[in-house]
Amino acid sequence: MAFQISYSLTILLIIFGISQSRAILDSLYYQKTCPQAENIIYQVVRNATTYDPKVPARILRMFFHDCFVRGCDASVLLDSTTKNEAEKDGPPNTSLAAFYVIDDAKTKLEKACPRTVSCADTLAIAARDVVVLSGGPNWVVLKGRKDGRISRANETLTLPAPSFNTSQLIQSFSQRGLTTKDLVTLSGGHTLGFSHCSSFEARLRNFSKIHDFDPNLNPQFAQDLKTKCPKPNRDGSAGHFLDSTQSVFDNDYYKRIVGGEGVFLSDQSMLLDYRTRWIVEAFARDQSSFFGEFAASMVKLGNVGVNENGEVRVNCRVVN
Ligand code: HEM
Ligand SMILES: *[C@@H]1O[C@H](CO)[C@@H](O)[C@H](O)[C@H]1NC(C)=O
Ligand SMILES: *[C@@H]1O[C@H](CO)[C@@H](O)[C@H](O)[C@H]1NC(C)=O
Ligand SMILES: *[C@@H]1O[C@H](CO)[C@@H](O)[C@H](O)[C@H]1NC(C)=O
Ligand SMILES: *[C@@H]1O[C@H](CO)[C@@H](O)[C@H](O)[C@H]1NC(C)=O
Ligand SMILES: *[C@@H]1O[C@H](CO)[C@@H](O)[C@H](O)[C@H]1NC(C)=O
């Protein structure tokens, strides 16, 4: 009997261990040490969003960049030093902003529960909050990440580029343990926010020997983008919103792709590949299935390269 119990327990542990291969994260991680942590973060993020409606898009993208470079370890939050150029000063950083929101939350967290809540967890929680505040799905954030001590500008070159086709995107996601479905789902983050011309203008003029603009762009939309991004003279802040409801978390992004209005080649390419097209079309038809999948894929994104051996930074911009 005792043998049977310990035997079943072992089996259970094995199954649990496999399905939770990153079992170090836990939904109740701060329940004893800082039960008010999530509320503190939520209040700061909500207040910041009422002052600046760009905050949700910026925080969501920041979390993606954090997790894709060195795992979700808050490496994206570190400032450059005289000896080291950090990720936030790497090339694809044009729209990385709103770091002050994470700083504000962290200052309040340090007052309430000193040296307890990591910057990586703070960003993961804030990323969930901005989706909720924008009308998107809610989910339970797993916690217990530690903050890394390394951040290198050149490693941002390993982020997927907006010029990537679906094969390249699938490869980039699979290198982080994310599936093709996660790729299509998480790209739905582009339901929020804005892009500068530089990220898509190669599609607009001189696209190829036989095409002036990318033939997969809706011609009317291509004309729109050209007007927004005139050549040669324009100001560096010019660009376009990533879907037509830039502050609302909804499935409009997928509807735009189906209509040939994906802003990046990477967005639009998912309609051309049989491995992703069906998912794009399903999400364009059914917002609730997108919401359910988005919540699940964000949890998976939050598990990428989680760091157990780091520290809890006091100031998210510098290592302790
Ligand atoms: C699939 C590969 C992806 C590529 C190639 C990509 C690329 C880009 C680029 C080039 C920009 C615009 C930068 C600029 O010019 O200002 C952008 C913006 C954005 N991305 Fe992505 N991204 C990807 C995936 C994701 C994911 C997974 C998320 C989050 C779940 C995300 C969230 C955002 C958001 C919210 C913005 C708008 C930022 C703002 O308005 O400040 N992206 N992305
Ligand atoms: C709310 O956000 C604004 C703008 O960032 C800031 O000036 C203000 O201090 C914040 N208020 C609270 C209570 O955090
Ligand atoms: C982006 O990187 C450039 C240098 O490559 C730097 O001058 C700029 O401050 C960075 N932007 C942000 C928001 O960190
Ligand atoms: C970044 O630079 C470091 C040296 O500073 C180098 O060891 C590393 O391989 C580079 N990484 C990439 C992705 O280029
Ligand atoms: C995707 O891009 C890569 C690199 O440019 C290229 O080798 C590959 O043929 C492309 N795949 C498709 C399906 O277009
Ligand atoms: C298109 O490319 C050709 C040859 O590469 C160049 O001569 C021409 O100026 C380009 N046109 C535009 C509008 O950039």
TrEMBL record:
Binding note for cofactor: Binds 1 heme b (iron(II)-protoporphyrin IX) group per subunit. Binds 2 calcium ions per subunit.
All copies of domain Plant heme peroxidase family profile, residue ranges: 24-320
Binding site for Ca(2+) 1: D66, V69, G71, D73, S75, E87
Keyword check for Calcium: yes
Protein origin, superkingdom: Eukaryota
GO MF annotations, alphabetized: heme binding; lactoperoxidase activity; metal ion binding
Site (Transition state stabilizer): R61
Co-factor(s): heme b; Ca(2+)
Disulphide bonds in the chain: C34-C113, C67-C72, C119-C316, C197-C229
Sequence positions that bind substrate: P160
PROSITE patterns: PEROXIDASE_1, PEROXIDASE_4
Function: Removal of H(2)O(2), oxidation of toxic reductants, biosynthesis and degradation of lignin, suberization, auxin catabolism, response to environmental stresses such as wounding, pathogen attack and oxidative stress. These functions might be dependent on each isozyme/isoform in each plant tissue.
Entry's family note: Belongs to the peroxidase family. Classical plant (class III) peroxidase subfamily.
Protein name per the record: Peroxidase
Organism: Penstemon smallii
